[in-house]
Amino acid sequence: MKFLRQNLAGLLAVILIYFYFLEFSQFTLLHLLEARIDSEWSVKAVLGGMALAGIVGSVLAWMAGRAGLARRFFGPGFLACGLVALASPLVSGMAAFLVLSVVMGLAVGFLTVSTAALLPALLPGARRGLMVGLGTGLAYAACNLPLLFHAKPETRALVAGGIVLPGSLPFLPWMTSERRKPLPGDGQTEFLKGRWHWLVGAFVVLIWLDSALFYIIQETPSLKEISWAGEGRAWLNGLVHLGAAVLAGWILDRGRLLLPLVLAWLALAAGACGLQYAGRAEFALLYVTGVSLYSCALVFLPSHGFQSAGDPLAFRRAMLVYALAGWIGSGLGIGMGENLNRIPLAFIAVSLVVLLPVLKLSLARS
Amino acid sequence: MKKTTLILAISVLAGAADLMTGICLVLAPGFTLRLMGVEVDPAALVFIRYIGAFVLGVGGSYLAGIVPAIRASDWSPLRTVWLVTAWIRLVICLFTGCSILTGSLGPAWISVPLTDGFLALLQGGWLLIGPWPDREDGNL
Q1: Residue B26 lies in a domain
Q2: What is the chain A residue with the closest CA to B139?
Q3: What are the chain B neighbours of A73 within 8 Å (beta carbons)?
Q4: Which of A73, A123, A320, B124 is the most buried (most CB within 10 A)?
Q5: 3-state class (DSSP) for residue A341
Q6: CA distance B129 to chain A (A)
Q7: Please, are residues A313 and A194 in contact by the beta-carbon 8 Å criterion?
Q8: Best mutation site among A176, A177, A180 for testing chain B: the one with the most B CBs within 10 Å?
Q9: B46–chain A Cβ distance below 8 A for any pair
Q10: Within a domain: residue B15?
Q11: pTM for the predicted model, two decimal places
């Protein structure tokens, strides 16, 4: 019971932010927009606004973290996310969609960075990796429930808002919390010190691959059919997501900090080749595995090695990885999928070069 | 004006406004609504009294924070009252605002979402970035 009590807030935060991102902010808002405004320009404007606001939100989280104020905005961040999701089926004008996308980008950017940086406070127990994996996996599994996966965008928006809005309540009392300003570098791990830029590069590559492949699967009917179609497939994908995320957490708890990233790249690269060139359904499961493996590490690694929560360096790491890899990397991936309609083998080879330092480091005992 | 005086003034004004409105809605719902410019079916007046009881409850809750702040300089209960009432006011603002926009409530109700929305933002915003007497960073 004590273990659950200690980790409940963290588990809830990880589930909420991933669930919201996957269920609503990634595509649902765009689908709602496309259904109401028939203009390619408007989709690009909303996507651009969201990405820019996401980067600004990440930077704001870093600044709030440095000032020791990030906790206070945690609850209101989820509140804003919930309100945007609930309001989205009601709006119809371009200006309203733009406002919603900017508010959502700010809130999601802030929350992703803050969750990762405040992890020592949110998950103070020993098995932090496992709990992050469980939260990540449960969120992915929930989004793959056939009832939600095949639901209309309006339903998905209402479900996301209906869960995240009340989910913000446990974090609202943090609004009254005192300013906490730990000393920078307090307890930072030597292993990741000075090597964070390599990890940012690795995450850029992984998110780029993921976003491009996801876009290609979504836009290619034959690939979509073998990857997502049918209730059985959705259940299977959900279970694989859950299993892979928990496995990543278990590996991270054992100190193999970079192994999930290497495994994720192998799974994503094999998935991309297999799906595009062989067209076999089994490779979709490799893609699903790769996504969950790196998603768990994405939340876990920025605050790894910090004893106290909210270290400014942890915020800086999280800001860099989410702003560059999360927002820019996914934009580049979607752009690649949109313009090339495939992931070239040359890109996979280049991504391996970017990943080589991480691969080399992972062979050393982390 | 001192910050503590300002916090107390806001609390007294917000609490008293709801307390008085609640009492009026319970005792004389038809008269109170006419003052707001709202026409209501007489059959619905019992539900208006019921809403009045809630409004009275929210307004009265400020006392639970104001009294310890004045008597013992304990500002922590008032901080919690501000947080909880900001949440309640936000929900009321959203519900009534959406109801007005969708036409299920008449435009005469607009004072409700405006007042509650303003106080929700003021209290929530103050808790986030404003000074608070017994918070370590009270003089931010």
Answers
A1: yes
A2: A179
A3: 128
A4: A123
A5: coil
A6: 9
A7: no
A8: A176
A9: no
A10: yes
A11: 0.87
**A339 — contact with chain B (CB < 8 Å)?**
no
Is pLDDT above 80 for A187?
A: no
Asked, for residue B47, whether it belongs to a domain, the answer is yes
Mean pLDDT of all residues in A303-314 = 82
Rg (C-alpha) for chain A, rounded Å, is 19
**Which one has a higher pLDDT value, A84 or A36?**
A84
Phi, psi dihedral angles at B139 (to 5 degrees)? -105, 40
List, as ranges, residues 148-187 from A with C-beta within 8 Å of B: 169, 172-173, 175-176, 178-179
B128 closest CB neighbour out of A68, A72, A173: A72
CB contact (8 A) between residue B124 and residue A178: no
For chain B, say whether A93 makes contact (Cβ under 8 Å): no
Q: Which run of H or of E encompasses A243?
A: helix A231-253
Please, is B116 exposed, middle or buried when counting C-beta atoms within 10 Å of its C-beta (0-12, 13-18, 19+)?
buried
> A188 falls in which pLDDT band (50, 70, 90)?
low
Q: Is A76 on the interface with B (CB under 8 A)?
A: yes
CATH number at residue A127: 1.20.1250.20
> Is the ipTM beyond the 0.95 threshold?
no
Per-residue pLDDT tens for A67-81?
Answer: 888 889 999 999 999
Mean pLDDT of chain A: 88
Cα(A111)–Cα(A323) distance, rounded to whole angstroms?
A: 12
Nearest-angstrom CA–CA distance, A305 and A90: 44
Phi, psi of A59 (to 5 degrees): -65, -40
Q: Which residues of B touch A173 (CB under 8 A)?
A: 80, 83
| Token duo for residue A231 | 């209730």
pLDDT of residue A177 exceeding 50, the answer is: yes
How many domains does chain B divide into? 1
Is the pLDDT assigned to residue A19 strictly greater than 80? yes
Range of the domain at A12: 2-363
Q: How many domains does chain A have?
A: 1
On whether residue B37 sits in a domain, the answer given is yes
Q: Could you tell me the residue range of the domain that residue B77 belongs to?
A: 3-129
